[in-house]
Specification:
Elements lengths: L2 E13 L5 E7 L3 E7 L18 E7 L6 E11 L2 H4 L2 H17 L7 H13 L7 H14 L20 E5 L4 E3 L11 E4 H12 L12 H19 L5 H11 L1
Parallel strand pairs: 3-5
Antiparallel strand pairs: 1-2, 1-4, 2-3, 4-5, 6-7, 6-8
Bound molecules: zinc ion.
């Protein structure tokens, strides 16, 4: 039976029995993979803390290709991301990141770019900085990398660049409508042209320098509403980690 070796991010862990865990990984070389870790629930498990969500691991697993469930052979911690876990703020954002990644991806589609982006985003979380803008970058870029980039440049109907002070946005068409084209094309949201420029910047801004982005507070809220609806339109449901994240950000 073939062995697969790869770095991986632990996304989710379920208890399968009194002794075993079912672990969802996002791997660098094989995309999302589910694998059973035999004996992982035992007190003296050889996996130690390596199967905790958020952990970056060096993974060896086996099984037949194209089958649903694999078996974990070996799993060693590359980074436990202790600094993220030490702050409730970064911890909740990180949980949201990995739940979003898990929800938007299917098993068995290799995507090294998504893996690199997800791990870099976790590393960019910093307890000293409010992670809201990083979260916006994460949502928009992840959607784009997976082929769901919203069309923000030209009106999806007439292909012209918008000239009015605001544009309409249709979550159904995943794109903007200029003011003259709105007639007969109901849209769910209106976006100010200034906010649209910020959205475009978030899509291209250097991830490592995200703390240099300066966005007015009210625009930040608009951006949050926009990306949240974009995610909802794609998934058709709310993520479990989202209300927790909102609760935490509103109480601080
Ligand atoms: Zn138009």
């Amino acid at each position: 039976m073939p062995l697969f070796r790869t770095r991986a991010l632990v996304l989710k862990v379920h208890y399968l029995s009194d002794t075993d865990k079912l672990v969802t990984f996002f791997t660098e070389r094989y995309g999302k993979v589910k694998a059973v870790a035999k004996g992982a629930r035992r007190l003296k498990s050889r996996y130690g803390a390596s199967l905790e969500p958020l952990t970056l691991v060096s993974l060896i697993y086996f099984g037949k290709e194209h089958q649903d469930l694999f078996r974990v052979n070996q799993c060693d911690i590359v980074s436990f991301h202790q600094e993220i876990r030490d702050s409730l703020d970064t911890f909740f954002y990180a949980l949201y990141f990995i739940e979003l990644l898990d929800s938007l991806t299917a098993e068995g589609h290799c995507d090294t770019e998504v893996f690199a982006f997800a791990t870099a985003s976790l590393e960019a979380l910093n307890p000293e900085q409010n992670p809201e803008l990083l979260c916006r970058i994460f949502e928009l870029r992840l959607l784009s990398l997976l082929g769901y980039r919203p069309r923000l440049e030209q009106c999806v109907k007439c292909r012209k660049f918008p000239r009015s002070h605001w544009v309409g946005f249709s979550y159904n068409s995943q794109g903007i409508f200029c003011a003259p084209c709105l007639e007969g094309n109901p849209v769910e949201a209106r976006i100010k042209l200034g906010t649209l420029q910020y959205l475009k910047r978030l899509l291209t801004h250097d991830l490592q320098r995200w703390t240099r982005l300066k966005i007015p507070k009210d625009t930040e809220q608009e951006l949050e509403q926009f990306t949240h609806r974009l995610v909802l339109a794609r998934l058709g449901r709310e993520l479990k980690s989202y209300p927790l994240l909102k609760q935490m950000t509103q109480s601080t």
